[in-house]
Every structure is written in C-alpha cells, then in structure tokens.
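Summary for the lay section of the report: proteins are chains of building blocks that fold into shapes. Here we show the chain for Ndx-7 protein and then a coded description of the shape we predicted for it.
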Amino acid sequence: MLLRQDPEGMEVFMVVRHHQIDFASGALVFPGGKADPQDFDENLLPWLNGQDGDQNMRAIQVSAIREAFEECGVLLAREKGSQELVNAELVATLDQYREPLNSGELSLIEFLQSNQLILACDTLVHFAHWITPEGMPKRFDTHFYLALAPEDQIALHDGYESVDSVWIQPQDALDEAKAGTKTIIFPTLRNIERLANTRTPEASVAAAQATPVIPILPWTEKRDDGMYVCIPTDAGYAVCEEKIPGRP
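The coded shape description reads as follows.
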C-alpha cells in the first residue's frame, strides 16, 4: 500500500487487475503477489536491511518489495553503503530487469548482487493480515504493508497483471465503490476504510505502528435476506459485514 501526500490529501496507489486473471479480475487492488521460494533464501540476508527476524515474515517483506518493483516499477532499495533510497534516475536504468524478474529468467539475488542493491525492508510497516475463508476453491494468506512512496519514483502498472493504475484518495475510492464505478473486493474496501481515518501518510504509518495486527478470517452467514460475509467485530474495522450481491 504505497502512500503519498497530494496537495488535496493523502493518496494510495492502486492498480486494475487484468480481466483474464481468475482472482479479482477487473478489480481495483493494491499492487502485490505471492511469495516465491527464492524469497525465503537465507543467502538474501546480506542484501536486506531492517528485515523481520521470522523467516516467513522476512520472505513476505522481500516478496512485497520485489512485487512492487515488478508490478509498478517502485523499488524500495538502497545502493550498498548508502542510507538513501535509490532515486528515479537509477530506477529508470533498472527497469529493464522487471520482466526478467517476473518471468523467473533472472533471480532476485542475481539482480541485487549485480547492481549492489540492498532491499529496504525497514520501510515497510505491517498493516493487516487477511486469510481467505475455509471452503473456498482458492485460498490466500495475505499480509498488507504500508510504505511511503519515494517522492521521485514513478509508479505505473505493468500492462500484464494490471492494465491500469491510479493514485486515489481513500475516501474517493470508497465513494466510487459505493457508486458502482469501481469494483473493489471486501478485504480491500475494509483496509481502504482504515486508511481513510488518517489524513497524511505519516499519520497512517504511526497509526499502523500503534495497532496490533490481528489475523482476519472472514466467514459467510445465510440470513433471511441473503448471504453475508462477516469478520470479527473486535478486528478494528468500522464495517464488519457486507451482503453478498445475488447472482442472476
């Protein structure tokens, strides 16, 4: 969840999923993807900064940074020996590696070693943890992170997994979802609502740092007026249930 401050308010970067992807096709989502086996490689340790001590969480941090670069061209990394995040000029020269990384032609560690880059895991703030309900044909165990977008880097969809992108204020995203002009799935909506409670990226980060991350496992309930998807009322979200639209 990349954040930036616009003169009119805080914005979050979102992409539109390709219509041929089987999960959340056509929906407005945050950039992301799944952890690869290479993300768990302990040989990556010298090429990480501020990583989580737990191997699984460390791999998810690595995955989040790698996927952000592959999917929208934003690289949260530093040149070896530097305290500053890589600038837009350097990222432009690294753009050629996005597709080889995505296809598996180039490994992450090869990319980091050849360019002497350190992944800035310390820029990630754990925001939420959602797990797909039991009984679903395809399940996900998803962690959401906040990060302040580097001011001079340009975020742009990749044209493969995502076909469009937008910087949008959280409340505007909620309004468009309510109006039906944007498709946003239940977990994404709930996390956008949390973002809408703060006015600046820094305030969002501070709020996330002060809020324990509780795993959210939604469930469905059949009621007289239809099916509902629900989450625990003490999970920290303002909306804890939503009616599932009926199918024709």
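Put simply, here is one thing we learned. The first strand starts at residue 2 and ends at 6.
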